[in-house]
Amino acid sequence: MVDRGRICGLFVLRRKGDSVEYLLVQKPKKGSWGPPKGRVDPGETDMDTAFRETEEEVGYDKNDLKIYEDTRREVHIVSKRKDKIGVFWIAELIDAQKEVRINPAEHSGFKWLSPQDTQRLILNCLKSLFSDFNQFVREKLLTSTD
């Protein structure tokens, strides 16, 4: 097993009425779905990486997103060839109508999905983390008047 270090990303959501949708992107070779994410470059903070990767992959920059910094979570990601730590936050798209600008060099598609469909499509190693994130959203964001 090869140690690939750290990856960081954002679970981007947008409000839709009294609910939310989450943005997932699809890897072209594997066909797997997940949030925008990528490896930490030398000298970058985890948050810098999450912002950079989100902008590179879907076109949303810091000004487009509200980050819920207290949602920072780490998850251990293991597969046959990789062993890494994933660091993720929840980010809300400020303008829910802003279009995704997918980077075709990195992804073959994107979807805005309900929490249930997101849970079904994401990688197994992210399911527990996403469940915690979605609980935070239900309890803190959908019941608040912000």
Automatic annotation (TrEMBL):
SUPFAM superfamilies: Nudix. Residues 3-143 form the Nudix hydrolase domain. Keywords: Hydrolase, Nucleotide-binding. InterPro entries: NUDIX_hydrolase-like_dom_sf, NUDIX_hydrolase_CS, NUDIX_hydrolase_dom, Nudix_hydrolase_domain, Tetra_PHTase. One of its GO terms (molecular function) is hydrolase activity. CDD domains: NUDIX_Ap4A_Nudt2. The keyword Hydrolase applies. Belongs to the Nudix hydrolase family. PANTHER family: BIS(5'-NUCLEOSYL)-TETRAPHOSPHATASE [ASYMMETRICAL] (PTHR21340:SF0), DIADENOSINE 5,5-P1,P4-TETRAPHOSPHATE PYROPHOSPHOHYDROLASE MUTT (PTHR21340). This is Bis(5'-nucleosyl)-tetraphosphatase [asymmetrical]. It comes from Trichogramma kaykai.
